[in-house]
Amino acid sequence: MSEQGEEQGNHYPAPVITIDGPSGTGKGTIAEGLAKLLGWHLLDTGALYRCVGLAAVRRGTPLDQGAALGSLAASLRIEFDAERVLLDGDDVSTDIRTAAAGEHASRVAQWPEVRRALWRLQRDAVRPPGLIADGRDMGTVVYPRAPLKVYLDATPRVRAERRHKQLKEKGMDANFSDLERELAERDRRDRERAVSPLAPAEDAVVIDTSSIGVEAVLARVVDEVRRALPDAPLSTEPAA
Length: 240
Hints:
five-stranded parallel β-sheet; three-stranded antiparallel β-sheet
């Protein structure tokens, strides 16, 4: 059981839905859409690790020193303000969305010292009326007793194509071949790390998004919410 599960026992202060999966599966978009439909809080845990990686690079903390990275992570003030992500008061919303930031996030995430430092932030994010947690180990480690766990996946090429398009739309330089190779390496590192490896929870609903659009995926997840949480206040309005 995770450290967090041990601290919280069988109960969370509000219901939690976890959405896990590798990069490029659409989990961030689905998590955001579901949070709007429910009127719940949204936690983008990938942004937390991206902030740690960015801070490490900016401060010259080596990415292969777990203890130093853990101390750094524990010292950071990371805040979500609507569409903005603030790192010690600095708006890093754009800086943390580059391909390099994703690579740095994957490297710092392999260290248990960093994961422990961020567990408390993730635990404290659970508050009424509920939380949608987007990440890689939300259902397996951070919130193992969540009433609904979703795991999104897609083929490596489709994921690389989506990521490439996303970066180009934001005006960022992106070479498809390099991006495909970096995603493959990140997948390997995330799935093979000793602590909190990327994998679906045993009771997760697994959805392959390779050939279906966002609206269809969201509709499928909403159906699962209705089954797992029949009292959840789903809005009849479409997600913005």
